[in-house]
Amino acid sequence: MLGLFRKMTWKFKLCLGFLLFSAIFSAVDGSAQTINFMFVNEESNLIGSKAMEVALNYIRRNPRLGIHIGGNYPVSIATQDAEVILENLCATYNASVKDGKPPHILIDFTMSGIPSEAVKTFTAALGIPTISASFGQDGDVRQWKNLDGEQLKYLIQVNPPADMIPEVIRSIVVAQNITDTGILYDDSFVMEHKYKSLLQNIPTRHIIARVEDVKSIRRQLTQFRDLDIVNYFILGRLTTIKTVLDNANAQKFFGRKYAWYAITQDKGSLRCGCSNATIILVKPEPSPENKERLSNLRTTYSFTSEPEITATFYLDLAVRSLLAMKSMLTSGEWPKNITYITCEEYNSDNVPIRVDLDLRRHLRQVSERPLYAPFVIETNGHSFEEFVMKLDKVTVINGQSISAETVGSWKSSLHSPILIKDAHALANFSAVTNYRIVTVLQHPFIMREKDENGNWKFSGYCIDLIEEIKSQIGFEYEIYVVPDNNFGNMDENGQWNGMIKELVEKRADIALGSLSVMAERENVVDFTVPYYDLVGITILMKKQKAPTSLFKFLTVLEQDVWICILGAYFFTSFLMWVFDRWSPYSYQNNREKYKDDEEKREFTLKECLWFCMTSLTPQGGGEAPKNLSGRLVAATWWLFGFIIIASYTANLAAFLTVSRLDTPVESLDDLSKQYKIQYAPLNGSAAMTFFKRMAEIEARFYEIWKDMSLNDSLSDVERAKLAVWDYPVSDKYTKMWQAMSSAGLPSTLEEAIARVRKSKSSSEGFAYLGDATDIRYQVMTNCDLQMVGDEFSRKPYAIAVQQGSPLKDQFNNAILLLLNKRKLEKLKEIWWNQNKMKKTCDTQDNQSDGISIYNIGGVFIVIFVGIGLACVTLAFEYWWYKYKYNSKSTTNENSAQPVISGKLSKNFEGSRKFSDFRTQSKQASIQQGFKRHSRMGPIATVTDNW
């Protein structure tokens, strides 16, 4: 037989096959079950309409299914008017009843909204078995929300793929531990009912918004970023995804800080004009065994509707619905006496009751192999097609997809987890929690310097603080300096500047620095617990230094006094010489009288000068004049010298002894009471705000007091109580603000420091009013500056965050933990006491009371000058003596020889007599010396010998 069949011609084989097919079709068709049905769909759901056409064609071309379509009553909804929709449904339904072909089943492909609810109302009221593909989970389909047990058996909802695919977001959020989510979707998904349920009971801040046009995309992305959302999900067609990613690339929404997830029903590849981006693409993936069937379906039935997963879902659901109804009819579970009523016959007393009409069980038991994925039929809201979504990690560089790595998969379900293939790749994809920190440069809290590679980096107390907090919370940050370099002040219109403005306008997440907690700032931002002690305002002034001079001992007396002393010296010396020369009782005029005196001193002019000079020294002037008049002059000079020396010594001790320097300004009150020293805070600083507001408060108090005192409604007694000579409230700050305004407020700290250093002294110049930490650091790093007075208007330093930000609680816990561990005290020790910029200065407490070389060094110069003069004098004496001796020698040589010879004997004799006289005088002196030694002791002997 097999050989005979092979020998048959192809025409004979074709005829034989046709006869066999006809016989089989006749046999099957003879046992086919006739089914009447209504098909309701929205006019916009073209995929559903096309799927129903293919489903009917599929049933006709597959007699093995045993289904014969008896009555087909389609209804296309093109309006949102519920009354019109119900009228169309009733008209079609009434026509089927009149034709004697009431629908066994209603297949509902309406998606959501009014059309879907109208169909649900219609079917529930008339008791028509229905299988719906509408969107919605538990309770979302309001007209089927309160169905009883019998109704749930024949009123069945099966969620379409577009209603299940968004659930992958929940699984990704859980798997990646995402804390913030921004979801954009287009019209290929229905998400209104997902707002409350998609991420329910998950600690994730999220926003769901529909994409409308390009402008709305840019605005929505900006809003997401302003709300600190860095994880983005796009639900839509590949074209929509490309548009969103292109806009994100233009706004620089890619990098370690952001994570992008693209979720689609389409089959194609991801495309975008991204310069450098990595995106997780989630798209459906049919099983390998179904891919061939889908290919045959497209070829045989020209079923090319996209997206494929949605089209095949509608096709499968339509075929399976009719098969379920066929099963009920064939099994005999369809009631034989089932009744139908028209819409006009319907009222509250005439409600069709269906019992034991278990269409759900028969739908669950359909054995027909699905085209795309199996169905899970449970309760309404929990029935769906169990398809698989593939997660690909796509890298796009310069608009080209260079790689696509599969990192996991997800099976459709309401609570199905992500099946991770490459945990490392998916973990690295997570958006890093990255906060934008705004700051102001201020030593030692925030400093910027170059590292060894020449790159700028930030350092300081606050950088170490944020690193400690980062180690506890776990986040990354990018830091930038506020453009206007201000901490934040409010103007008259309520507008802010500085770091506070960055937080208010949501350009920054954290304001880090020596930011004072102020009432008006707390109205627009949130502050953490303080991380630094109370810090007030204080005064910075130039340190007063004692002037030094090598010849300071000459400045003890004024120049006029020194001239008078020199005049008195020369006049007294001259007067003493005159008196000694003219007095008959002086030594030179009465030598015979004083020939036996041991001390014989002739007061020539040279001796008088020497006597007056040495009389002023502890050595003394030596022998006084013999005459009474000369002694009176000497006594007068001694008295004069005693007074001058005593006065000089007292003043010299006062001049040269280093003592504490009195500062003319020691407090804010001292500063306000003087006018020689100008003072001002930085323009726009918290100190400026303090003084300005205090002045305004004083002015307001004055106006209040003036209005009270001039009030005509007061009685004379009440007015008398307000009448005082002095204004009862201080106007100190009003005067200070006026002085500051006239002095001019420096715009930068560097400018303020420069003005302080230009001060001539501590009693004349400029004083800077600012934060004590700023001033303390300047004093620590500069030995020519000093901090004056106590701190006032003290406020704590804290970190500021956006109002309502969850960072406040996280940072509070971290800072309190650092306080308990004494980490903040350690940071203070590092940046204040151990700061490498700290200078060791000579403080007033460490200075001794001794005379420094800088003040007394001129005395040594005087000694060297005196020694120099002595050397010059010695040279002159040597020269003079040699010149004089040579002159005498020349005179002797020019004399006659006999004369020389005659005089030689006389000179020799005279010389011999002179020598004998010197010897006798010396011996007499020695004898007298021994006599005095026996009376006066060794001092007198040494003195006499000298």
Main-sheet strand order equals 7-6-8-9-10-13-14-15
User: What is the percent of helical residues?
Assistant: 40-55%
Q: What best-fitting shape do the alpha-carbon axes yield?
A: elongated
Question: How many strand units?
Answer: 26
Q: For the residues shown, what is the average pLDDT?
A: 81
Oligomer: single chain
Structural class, judged by helices and strands? Answer: alpha/beta
Beta content: 15-25%
pLDDT < 50 stretches:
1-30, 845-849, 896-946
Radius of gyration: 57 Å
Largest sheet entry: 8 strands, mixed
- Count every helix, treating DSSP H or I runs of 4 or more residues as helices: 31
Cα-to-Cα separation, first versus last residue? 168 Å
Subcellular location: Cell membrane
Domain Ionotropic glutamate receptor C-terminal: 434-834
Binding site for L-glutamate: 516, 521, 771
Site (Interaction with the cone snail toxin Con-ikot-ikot): 692
Task: Describe the 3D structure.
The chain contains 31 helices and 26 strands. With 946 residues, the protein is α/β, with parallel strands linked by helices. The strands form 6 sheets. An 8-stranded mixed beta sheet has the order 7-6-8-9-10-13-14-15. Strand 1 (33-42), helix 3 and strand 2 form a beta-alpha-beta unit. Mean pLDDT is 81; it is low at 1-30, 845-849 and 896-946. InterPro entries: Glu/Gly-bd, Iono_Glu_rcpt_met, Ionotropic_Glu_rcpt, Iontro_rcpt_C, Peripla_BP_I.
